Each structure stands twice: as structure tokens, then as C-alpha cells.
């Protein structure tokens, strides 16, 4: 089974549920993200987290325009100092909102069900009896992660996000959740990968919308905030935005560099073509050995041991970690580490603040790049939020491709700026699609301003 990237980092998933609908603008919207700084962690806590993150990733990736149709924005929440980013979607009739992790590294939607027996204490759950459109498909649903498993049944119901609705969307109504996989206020996960990697085999919510023509443009995009280096970060902060069907031109500058996926769509893959550390070019393999999964549900960056070793060889004083830090490296905190990555186009710098995962002694820090030797059918590199916080990232359905652009001053100005996190809202629907039909029913709403619906994305600390 595939493992959602967000689970690796930390089991602190939070989701808020709001039963009362709030009026929002129509489809063609954006989702705001909120960020929550991590609770003070000891070095041992960080070590346990790091070990779990690496093991979860290994499991997840198989170790061992004529007229506008629809645009939507979902505001994100940044929690635990960039450990994860979440938003919300609405489920059922009448619709009830739930906070979920948004994960481009997996492709299943699931939420905790009211019949949940284990692992769901204190979190919001979905009550199927309260939805007039709920249907039980009578099949078992399960997804296994490095840090646990979810089990339930496969069901279907209406799902709304950012002004879009998919009727009869398949999802997992989960009744058993491994300990600590979910922490309030997060109630589930929304996979944004391709159907071919779905554990249930069902078409994902996003792919149904994109293939039906419900979006103005066949793409979705992320902008993530940075609070990892903010000393005054609150537990939850604005996390950025996730848009469907359009590009928010206020959040990036220059051109978006699109690179086509090198294989039939599965994970969101790109070949890594260039890597520099402290200005020195690192030799990396070519072909499939360079394939990198661009994963919003993963916090850090994992890569093959031989290349990771060369990366840290460019940093004087670096040493391999031991114990829980096996696979990671320490380096002098006084050293500013400059890394840049190219995926066939421009070279994109990674902020030194993002390279530094945490400080483990008075002088030593842990780097955010770690050794990850995946299975033969999995990508060699898993590139998570350590990189994605530094770019505006676009995931395009047709042609299948990923694009990056430089963040604008507006986007950069959101980093480290305290503010209230977005609240879950349920807005009016401008485009409705029936799952499996590939037909979109578009309702035009005149004279509307931007519709904002809060959605969640797993951005960060964990590789599922």
C-alpha cells in the first residue's frame, strides 16, 4: 500500500469541523493555509520524529480557454513550524466541513467515521446517517503507512472544495486508525496523486474535476509559508494557499517553468538534473535514477545514500547521525548552507533556514536532506516542503507536468507574519461533477468576487 507523505513527520494532524455552512464566493477560488508552530521539542523528541519520518517514507515509496469554467482557492493552515499544512473540504448532504491533509504523494481520500473504534479520540468524525446522499459500497478500505494503518469501508458521497462539488466521490470511511496517526483538528487526508497509485483504485477528487473540464485551466497550485525560523510563531499560522483551476499571479513572478512528467502519470515525478551545494556541482545519476517525487505531504528531502554523503562532504564539520538520527547528518550551526536544485529548467535555491531542520547541541544542527534508499519501483528522490516553500509549484493535468516559479514579494511577505488561521467554510457551488461520468455541470454565477474556501494540505514534516 502507498503511504501518505504527511504521516512521516509527525502524527500531529489537526482538523476542524464546522457543521454550519458559511456563505463563500463561487467556484474559481483559493484556499488559505494556516501554520501552527511546533510545541517545544527536546532533542530526543526530534530524533524520534526523524526516525519515524524516514521509516514512513521508506514504506510509502516501496522500500525493501474560451470562457472561464471554474477556479477555486483553498487557504491553508501551517502547523508545527512547517511540519504540516492542512485545509478543509465538505462532505455529505447537508455538507459538513473537515480538516484534511493535502498530499500530492498519495491518491486516496479518507476521513474518520462516526463508527470509529480506535485512534479517533477527540477528532471530528463523519456521521453517515446524517447525509442523505451517502452510499456504502460494501468493500473494505485500507491504507498502510510507515507509522500505522487506517481501515474502514469504501463509501461514496458528495464532496465539496473551493466551490467545486463531485457527486458520488469514493472515499474511505475509516473505523480503525493506528495510534497517533491523527490529532485534532485533522480528521483525514486528501490524496492529490494520480489514480494509478490509489490504494482503493478509485479516481481521486482532483482528477475527476480536471478530467471533466470543470476547471478553467487543468492545473492546481501551491504556495506555502515559512515559520520554521520564526521565534514568535503561534501553534497555528496562515499557511499559504492551494488553488484549483487557475494560477494566482500575485503569488509568483516571472514565467512558470513547466517540465513534462517522464513516465505515465503515477507519482508527480520529475528528473533531478542539477544539484549544487555551497556553489559546488554534485554528480547525480541520470535517467530513472534521477526521478524525484514532488510531494506536498513530505516535510524534508530524501535521496540516495551515495549522493547525500557527497552533499554533506561539501559542508566542513558535518558528520553522519547515529541512533534515531541514522541516515541524517549533523553540521555546524554556524555554517550557512546554500543548496540549489534543477529539474531540467532553472536552478531553484533552497533557503538556509529550510536546510536546517533543528539544533541538537550548542553547536550542531541537523540537515533537512537525509538518506533514503527506496524500492526498485519507487523514485530515488522524495522532494518535500523543504524545497516547496521556496517556489510557487503547479501540478498540471494536461499535458501532465509540474511547473515552478519564483515567489513574489507578496508571497514572501507572508513568511513569519503572525495572523489568524483560516476557518473552515462551505461556499456556494459553481461546478458539479458526477464521479465516473467525466461530465461537468457548470453553473455561472454573475458578479462574484473571489470565493475562498479553506482546504488543507499536508505540507511538511512527515513523509507518508
User: What value does the Rg take, in angstroms?
Assistant: 20 Å
Largest sheet: 17 strands, mixed
User: Can you say what the CATH homologous superfamily of one domain is?
Assistant: Acid Proteases
The assigned CATH architecture of one domain is Beta Barrel
Tell me the CATH topology of one domain: Cathepsin D, subunit A, domain 1
Q: Number of DSSP strands? A: 30
Q: Name the CATH class of one domain.
A: Mainly Beta
Question: What can you tell me about this protein's structure?
Answer:
The structure is a single chain. By secondary structure, the protein is mainly beta. Among the domains are: 78-217 and 423-436, Acid Proteases (Cathepsin D, subunit A, domain 1, Beta Barrel), CATH 2.40.70; 252-407, Beta Barrel (Cathepsin D, subunit A, domain 1), CATH 2.40.70.10. The protein has helices at residues 6-9, 43-60, 205-212, 305-313, 352-355, 385-388, 409-412, and strands at residues 29-35, 72-79, 84-91, 96-103, 109-112, 135-145, 148-161, 164-177, 186-191, 219-224, 236-244, 252-260, 269-271, 274-277, 280-281, 291-294, 301-303, 319-320, 329-332, 339-342, 347-350, 356-359, 364-367, 369-371, 381-383, 392-396, 401-407, 431-434, 440-442, 451-452. It has a 17-stranded mixed β-sheet that branches. A hairpin with a 5-residue loop joins strand 28 (431-434) and strand 29 (440-442). The protein starts with 5 loop residues before the first helix and ends in a 12-residue tail after the last strand. Residues 1-27, 64-68 and 443-463 have low confidence and may be disordered. Residues 1-19 form the signal peptide. Disulfide bonds join 116-120. Residues 85-405 form the Peptidase A1 domain. Pfam families: Asp.
